[in-house]
């Protein structure tokens, strides 16, 4: 997971909320609650970094928290909120 280039699916919108954010997928009509501001920050920055590891480092997430973030990001991939980017040059 840490070395994957993930990004927010192009059909997903994030809406900030006091508890974190709502992620809505316009294709599947799924709604997911992101319940921590750190998760919102990482998810919002994935497109700007080559890997999940780089996004976690950039957001200042302590390494001992990375397994929990990897679990959350895996769930977001399974619900199609995130997808693996294919960067072309």
How would you characterize this protein structure?
- The structure is a single chain.
- The strands form two sheets. Strands 2-3-4 form a three-stranded antiparallel sheet, covered by helices on one side.
- The protein is built from three helices and five strands; from the N terminus they run E-E-E-E-H-H-H-E.
- The mean pLDDT is 94.
- It is globular.
- It has 89 residues and is an alpha+beta fold.
- It has a single domain (6-83), classed as Alpha-Beta Complex (Outer Surface Protein A, domain 3).
- Strand 2 (12-17) and strand 3 form a beta hairpin.
Task: Write a compact overview of the structure shown.
By secondary structure, this protein is of the alpha+beta class. Helix content is 33%, strand content 25%. The protein has helices at 37-45, 52-58, 66-78, and strands at residues 6-8, 12-17, 20-25, 31-34, 82-84.
Which structural traits does this protein have?
single chain, 89 residues, alpha+beta, Outer Surface Protein A, domain 3, three-stranded antiparallel beta sheet, two-stranded antiparallel ribbon, 3 helices, 5 strands, 33% helix
Give a count of the beta strands, DSSP E runs of length 2 or more.
5
The Rg value, from CA coordinates, equals 12 Å
User: Numbering strands along the chain, what is their spatial order in the largest sheet?
Assistant: 2-3-4
How many helical elements? 3
How many distinct folded domains?
1
Q: CATH topology, which one?
A: Outer Surface Protein A, domain 3
């Amino acid at each position: 997971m840490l070395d994957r280039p993930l990004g927010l699916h192009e059909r997903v919108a994030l809406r900030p909320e006091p508890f974190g954010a709502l992620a809505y997928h316009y294709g599947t009509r799924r709604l997911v609650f992101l319940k921590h501001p750190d998760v919102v920050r990482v998810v919002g920055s994935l497109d700007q970094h080559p890997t999940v590891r780089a996004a976690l480092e950039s957001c200042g997430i302590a390494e001992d928290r990375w397994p929990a973030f990897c679990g959350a990001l895996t769930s977001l991939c399974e619900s199609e909120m995130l997808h693996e980017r294919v960067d072309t040059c």
